[in-house]
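Quick one, probably user error.
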């Protein structure tokens, strides 16, 4: 017999996860389309009763985004400029109606290579908070998302939050998404960048991530290291080399070829860096 449960407390949800196997229902924007015309054939654990997980809070050393926080919640919450890319990504998650119910954690747990929120959280050094009756684990998003539709989440675990260290919530950031049209589209490629400038105007911190060009979004660490200590300018960013994109493994599909994706990634990374650096210069002025 198929079970349906809607716990009101996290501990109750964890107990249910320890007892049986469940399909998680949060915003439902991926859950229902995945069913198509088929009936539900697995136990359903509905998280919409867990009000404690719908909040964005601040501790002395980090920002904590509860797992049931929606993209509209992100847009409405006052956050530092470093979260600019995340807010821009939030506006790209489907329609406004979808943004009102789709959750940040759901975007991560779905683990689509084209998940809009992942690059913006990678440049913030986001961590997944995973709870079970055995305790709590904290995994960097790069270790949590293992590939296309694959995560490190165990059957008895629940993602309860995304954590962003305050040391990574400095500077300014930007997000650029390339699709076949402006809205309601799965991306061909996307990029997020966060920069900090030193007192001398040089780049002191750089974080760049690209999505939809590999099985999971990737930080471009070689490019980040190459830009440190340089003055931000269009001419500098146009010196970006092909080797800086070696972590990407784009594929051919109906939205674009691998060759096109690789060329597009370079261009949108350039635009994203220029936008992020421009915001940092305005803040410093």
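Nope, works fine. Designed sequence:
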């Amino acid at each position: 017999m198929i079970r349906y449960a809607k716990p009101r407390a996290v501990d109750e949800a964890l107990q249910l996860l320890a007892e049986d196997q469940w399909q998680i229902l949060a915003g439902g924007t991926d859950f229902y389309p995945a069913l198509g015309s088929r009936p539900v054939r697995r136990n359903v654990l509905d998280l919409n009763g867990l009000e404690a997980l719908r909040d964005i809070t601040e501790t002395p050393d980090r920002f904590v985004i509860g797992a049931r926080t929606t993209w509209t919640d992100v847009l409405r919450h006052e956050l530092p400029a470093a979260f600019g890319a995340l807010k821009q990504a939030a506006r790209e998650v489907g329609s406004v109606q979808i943004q009102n119910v789709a959750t940040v954690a759901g975007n991560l747990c779905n683990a689509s290579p084209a998940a809009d929120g992942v690059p913006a959280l990678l440049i913030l050094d986001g961590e997944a908070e995973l709870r079970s009756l055995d305790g709590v684990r904290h995994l960097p998003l790069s270790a949590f998302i293992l590939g296309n539709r694959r995560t490190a989440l165990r059957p008895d675990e629940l993602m309860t939050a995304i954590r962003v260290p305050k040391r990574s919530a400095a500077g300014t950031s930007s997000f650029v998404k390339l699709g076949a049209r402006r809205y309601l589209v799965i991306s061909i490629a996307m990029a997020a960048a966060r920069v900090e400038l030193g007192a001398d105007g040089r780049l002191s911190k750089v974080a760049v991530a690209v999505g939809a060009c590999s099985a999971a979004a990737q930080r471009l660490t070689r490019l980040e290291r190459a830009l440190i200590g340089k003055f931000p300018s269009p001419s500098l960013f146009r010196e970006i080399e092909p080797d800086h994109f070696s972590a990407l493994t784009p594929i051919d599909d109906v939205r674009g070829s691998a060759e096109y994706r690789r060329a597009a990634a370079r261009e949108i990374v350039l635009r994203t860096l220029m936008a992020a650096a421009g915001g940092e210069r305005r803040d410093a002025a």
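Residues 258-284 form the longest helix (27 residues).
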